[in-house]
Amino acid sequence: xxxxxxxxxxxRERKELSLSQVAAATRIxxxxxxxxxxxxxxRMAAAAYARxxxxxxxxxxxxxxxxxxxxxxxxxxxxxxxxxxxxxxGLSQTAADKDRAVEDSSGGATWTNLALTPGVIRRILxxxxxxxxxxxxxxxxxxxxxxxxxxxxxxxxPGDEVVSPLLGDPPDAxxxxxxxxxxxx
Length: 185
Known about the structure:
Shape: elongated
Structural class: mainly alpha
Radius of gyration: 36 Å
Strand content: under 5%
Helix content: 40-55%
CATH class of the largest domain: Mainly Alpha
CATH superfamily of the largest domain: lambda repressor-like DNA-binding domains
CATH architecture of the largest domain: Orthogonal Bundle
CATH topology of the largest domain: 434 Repressor (Amino-terminal Domain)
Largest sheet: none
Protein backbone atom coordinates (compact mmCIF):
# COMPACT_ATOMS: atom_id res chain seq x y z
CA UNK A 1 0.00 0.00 0.00
CA UNK A 2 1.33 3.38 -0.99
CA UNK A 3 1.80 5.91 1.83
CA UNK A 4 0.40 9.44 1.78
CA UNK A 5 3.81 10.90 1.10
CA UNK A 6 4.62 8.46 -1.70
CA UNK A 7 1.27 9.18 -3.36
CA UNK A 8 1.83 12.93 -3.13
CA UNK A 9 5.37 12.74 -4.50
CA UNK A 10 4.58 10.41 -7.43
CA UNK A 11 1.49 12.42 -8.41
CA ARG A 12 3.41 15.71 -8.24
CA GLU A 13 6.30 14.31 -10.28
CA ARG A 14 3.91 12.77 -12.84
CA LYS A 15 2.36 16.23 -13.31
CA GLU A 16 5.89 17.70 -13.56
CA LEU A 17 5.32 20.20 -10.75
CA SER A 18 8.13 21.56 -8.58
CA LEU A 19 7.86 22.05 -4.83
CA SER A 20 7.98 25.81 -5.40
CA GLN A 21 5.04 25.67 -7.80
CA VAL A 22 2.99 23.61 -5.35
CA ALA A 23 3.88 25.93 -2.47
CA ALA A 24 2.92 29.02 -4.46
CA ALA A 25 -0.38 27.55 -5.64
CA THR A 26 -1.47 26.03 -2.31
CA ARG A 27 0.13 28.61 0.01
CA ILE A 28 1.63 25.76 2.03
CA UNK A 29 5.27 26.23 3.07
CA UNK A 30 7.78 24.13 1.15
CA UNK A 31 8.98 22.62 4.44
CA UNK A 32 5.47 21.28 5.15
CA UNK A 33 5.14 19.88 1.64
CA UNK A 34 8.50 18.13 1.99
CA UNK A 35 7.43 16.79 5.39
CA UNK A 36 4.19 15.41 3.97
CA UNK A 37 5.99 13.79 1.03
CA UNK A 38 8.41 12.08 3.44
CA UNK A 39 5.53 11.00 5.74
CA UNK A 40 6.94 13.09 8.60
CA UNK A 41 3.89 14.72 10.16
CA UNK A 42 5.65 15.30 13.49
CA ARG A 43 6.78 18.75 12.33
CA MET A 44 3.17 19.96 12.04
CA ALA A 45 1.96 22.15 14.89
CA ALA A 46 -1.18 20.07 15.37
CA ALA A 47 -3.09 17.21 13.78
CA ALA A 48 -5.69 19.69 12.52
CA TYR A 49 -3.02 21.46 10.44
CA ALA A 50 -1.84 18.17 9.00
CA ARG A 51 -5.40 17.23 7.99
CA UNK A 52 -5.93 20.65 6.42
CA UNK A 53 -2.65 20.50 4.49
CA UNK A 54 -3.45 16.98 3.27
CA UNK A 55 -6.85 18.17 2.04
CA UNK A 56 -5.43 21.22 0.24
CA UNK A 57 -2.53 19.32 -1.31
CA UNK A 58 -4.70 16.38 -2.41
CA UNK A 59 -7.30 18.65 -4.03
CA UNK A 60 -4.54 20.59 -5.81
CA UNK A 61 -3.14 17.34 -7.23
CA UNK A 62 -6.64 16.16 -8.22
CA UNK A 63 -6.79 13.40 -5.57
CA UNK A 64 -9.69 12.53 -3.28
CA UNK A 65 -8.64 13.84 0.16
CA UNK A 66 -11.04 11.73 2.26
CA UNK A 67 -9.15 8.39 2.14
CA UNK A 68 -5.85 10.20 2.67
CA UNK A 69 -7.16 12.02 5.74
CA UNK A 70 -8.57 8.74 7.06
CA UNK A 71 -5.21 7.04 6.47
CA UNK A 72 -3.42 9.89 8.26
CA UNK A 73 -5.81 9.68 11.22
CA UNK A 74 -5.33 5.93 11.54
CA UNK A 75 -1.55 5.85 11.19
CA UNK A 76 -0.06 9.24 12.02
CA UNK A 77 -2.44 11.33 14.12
CA UNK A 78 -1.57 11.43 17.80
CA UNK A 79 -4.08 9.75 20.02
CA UNK A 80 -6.19 12.74 20.84
CA UNK A 81 -7.49 12.82 24.38
CA UNK A 82 -10.69 14.78 24.47
CA UNK A 83 -12.14 16.15 27.61
CA UNK A 84 -15.76 16.87 27.17
CA UNK A 85 -19.13 16.76 28.66
CA UNK A 86 -20.96 14.60 26.20
CA UNK A 87 -23.88 17.02 25.90
CA UNK A 88 -21.66 20.12 25.48
CA UNK A 89 -21.55 20.94 21.73
CA GLY A 90 -19.00 23.71 22.34
CA LEU A 91 -16.26 21.17 22.98
CA SER A 92 -15.08 18.54 20.53
CA GLN A 93 -14.65 14.85 21.12
CA THR A 94 -13.19 11.98 19.15
CA ALA A 95 -15.32 9.20 17.72
CA ALA A 96 -13.89 6.76 20.26
CA ASP A 97 -14.97 9.06 23.09
CA LYS A 98 -18.47 9.31 21.63
CA ASP A 99 -18.67 5.51 21.59
CA ARG A 100 -17.50 5.30 25.23
CA ALA A 101 -19.76 8.05 26.49
CA VAL A 102 -22.63 6.79 28.59
CA GLU A 103 -25.43 8.79 30.15
CA ASP A 104 -26.07 8.35 33.85
CA SER A 105 -29.45 7.29 35.24
CA SER A 106 -30.70 10.88 35.49
CA GLY A 107 -30.17 11.40 31.75
CA GLY A 108 -27.37 13.92 32.26
CA ALA A 109 -23.98 13.89 30.66
CA THR A 110 -20.96 12.05 32.02
CA TRP A 111 -17.31 12.97 31.87
CA THR A 112 -14.83 11.29 29.57
CA ASN A 113 -11.04 11.69 29.80
CA LEU A 114 -9.99 15.11 31.07
CA ALA A 115 -7.38 17.04 29.10
CA LEU A 116 -6.49 20.70 29.46
CA THR A 117 -7.81 22.12 26.23
CA PRO A 118 -8.45 25.86 25.91
CA GLY A 119 -12.20 25.22 26.22
CA VAL A 120 -11.75 23.32 29.49
CA ILE A 121 -9.49 26.01 30.91
CA ARG A 122 -11.89 28.77 29.96
CA ARG A 123 -15.06 27.03 31.13
CA ILE A 124 -13.87 25.25 34.28
CA LEU A 125 -10.43 26.16 35.58
CA UNK A 126 -10.67 29.95 35.20
CA UNK A 127 -13.83 30.32 37.35
CA UNK A 128 -12.38 27.93 39.94
CA UNK A 129 -9.19 30.00 40.04
CA UNK A 130 -11.16 33.21 40.52
CA UNK A 131 -13.08 31.65 43.41
CA UNK A 132 -9.83 30.56 45.08
CA UNK A 133 -8.38 34.08 44.77
CA UNK A 134 -11.56 35.60 46.25
CA UNK A 135 -11.45 33.19 49.20
CA UNK A 136 -7.81 34.07 49.86
CA UNK A 137 -8.57 37.81 49.85
CA UNK A 138 -11.52 37.40 52.22
CA UNK A 139 -9.49 35.23 54.60
CA UNK A 140 -6.64 37.79 54.64
CA UNK A 141 -9.12 40.57 55.49
CA UNK A 142 -10.69 38.47 58.25
CA UNK A 143 -7.27 37.74 59.75
CA UNK A 144 -6.38 41.43 59.71
CA UNK A 145 -9.63 42.34 61.49
CA UNK A 146 -9.20 39.61 64.10
CA UNK A 147 -5.65 40.69 64.97
CA UNK A 148 -7.08 43.50 67.15
CA UNK A 149 -6.05 46.50 65.12
CA UNK A 150 -8.81 48.54 63.63
CA UNK A 151 -8.30 50.65 60.55
CA UNK A 152 -6.38 53.80 61.52
CA UNK A 153 -4.97 52.49 64.84
CA UNK A 154 -1.26 52.64 65.42
CA UNK A 155 0.63 49.98 67.34
CA UNK A 156 2.01 51.44 70.56
CA UNK A 157 4.22 50.26 73.38
CA PRO A 158 2.70 49.82 76.83
CA GLY A 159 2.41 53.20 78.59
CA ASP A 160 2.44 55.22 75.37
CA GLU A 161 -0.49 57.44 74.61
CA VAL A 162 -2.23 56.19 71.49
CA VAL A 163 -3.35 58.92 69.12
CA SER A 164 -5.21 58.00 66.01
CA PRO A 165 -3.79 59.80 62.99
CA LEU A 166 -7.27 60.08 61.52
CA LEU A 167 -9.49 60.91 64.51
CA GLY A 168 -7.27 62.93 66.90
CA ASP A 169 -8.32 66.26 68.45
CA PRO A 170 -6.94 69.36 66.76
CA PRO A 171 -3.98 71.04 68.46
CA ASP A 172 -4.73 73.88 70.89
CA ALA A 173 -3.10 76.43 68.59
CA UNK A 174 -6.03 76.15 66.23
CA UNK A 175 -8.52 76.92 69.01
CA UNK A 176 -6.90 80.18 70.14
CA UNK A 177 -6.79 81.86 66.77
CA UNK A 178 -9.58 84.38 66.15
CA UNK A 179 -10.76 83.97 62.56
CA UNK A 180 -12.09 87.58 62.42
CA UNK A 181 -9.61 90.20 63.72
CA UNK A 182 -11.01 92.78 66.15
CA UNK A 183 -14.03 90.75 67.20
CA UNK A 184 -14.61 89.93 70.86
CA UNK A 185 -14.95 86.26 71.64
